[in-house]
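Quick one: structure tokens for this chain, please?
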Amino acid sequence: VDLLGAELTETRSELRDTREAMRTLASAVPLEFTVAQYNILASYLGQNTQPWFLYGVDLRSTEGQERRSQIMDKFYERDSVTGQLRNKGWPNYVRGILTEDEIRSVENLDDAHFRWEARRQRLVEETTNLDADVVSLVECDHFDNFFRPALAEYGYDGVHRKRPRQSSHDGCALFWKRQKFELVASDGIDFIDRVDPETGTLMKDRCALVVLLRSRTHPGKRIIVISVHLARNPEDVRQDRLRTKQVAQVFRLLSDFAARHSADDPSGCDTAVLMCGDLNATNFAKLRGMSLALAAITSSRVHPFMWDAQDVPTRATSVTTSRHVRIDCLFFQSSRLSLINKNMLPQLNEPIPNDRYPSDHLPLLSRFRFQSELDRDISLARTWFRVMMNAGTCEEPPLTVEEQRNAWVIFDWNNDGLITLPKLRRVAQYLGFQLEPQIEDFIFQKMLAAESSLGALAQALEPGNVDFARFSAAYETAIHSVRNEQLPELIEAFKAFDTNGDGQITPEELYTMLRECSPTPVSRESAETCFREMHFGREGGLTYEEFAARIIDGGRHVGAA
């Protein structure tokens, strides 16, 4: 017995040593992980009898589109006195438009492809076949009694947030492989769409969910994952104002959540952000640009993710008889993560769900890798170079002063605090820029000339040397001379604020957009103050350049990650 006890103790010790060795080995390799986004089509919403489906009837031809329009009008028709729906319930709103045979065809396909009992296990199979480390499921109902126990069998833990409207049973869910990540914290928000002016009641419908996960193999690496489902009807661009208001609330939640848990973690973990969901919008750049504009104009705290979020490219993600659109997203923080791979979505010609796909959306899957500090510094140094080359346009966010200091490490590789022209040329080659000597001279002369902008702050240097102050001052000058304002997000935001399309924003247009899109109340007086600050008291409306300059300057004061 004593001998067996000793052998058992020795075996346990060897196992501990083996686990520690494996953990050390794993931590030496950059952390890679996969993330999936999937709108599963909630059970109570997945009915072919809904007017936006109606599979089995030709409603895609010109005549069919007219018939669908008639059905939609009848579906939403209300009694002028009571305000109640006049044709509530299937098939009342298609009577007189669809034939009896067409109604039966719709019902047959509903039973074959939409019925929850036929879809739910296929949804689990579709999700688990992705084998993702983190999964966002939106429009997710039956969380407690189906999805959580079903996915637990495949090694997943998860959390859920139900939509605030009582009649809506779905919400956002996030799952993660328990062997890969552990939950540190979670939070969420119910979007405030508007306030009833008479009762003061907060009108809420959609929500967002956020989790902070720590890697089990790389304890110094954490990810913040957001799952979101925005206001419906992507074909209605008027809804973009409401969706912008909801995105702004997501970003405010992110800033507060990240700040709160950064303070809780004195070890300084490397944390990256991802946002998954169904945006119900076809122009992602517009939503992001308008959210950036709101934050900058109202001087709200901005998380770095708002500036360096990169969208994983995909084909159409939702295909029905009434739409063929890309509305599902997977954004990642490009300053901390690299996109390694993504699944290729099929090019669908037939509507879904069908006998192959159990939802009206396709799942997205991407693989990411945490960047090393060197990777990040090199990327920042390349951004600095592209701006200084004065190429005329620069579709990258402006560097903060902290990011400029990180880029400086690449330029000042020997840590003598100075850059010379030969040193600049060597760095350009290292970064992969094949520049003509006159371009390198041009960039260096810009830095030497920056001394005049520093004034009394300039330190005396030997001729031909540049310190960080000149390096930064030259960049600050260049960033306003190149067309950095041509970021697609800013173009779309300006178009949205310029409601009459005359190429300028009036005080009234600014106030209207702030009032309708800002997550916090904005008075007319504060909107007028913002207008004067951006317009410097000049006559006429706010120009595109003034509008963009305010947002770019706001990007320099992003909150801590």
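The first strand starts at residue 32 and ends at 39.
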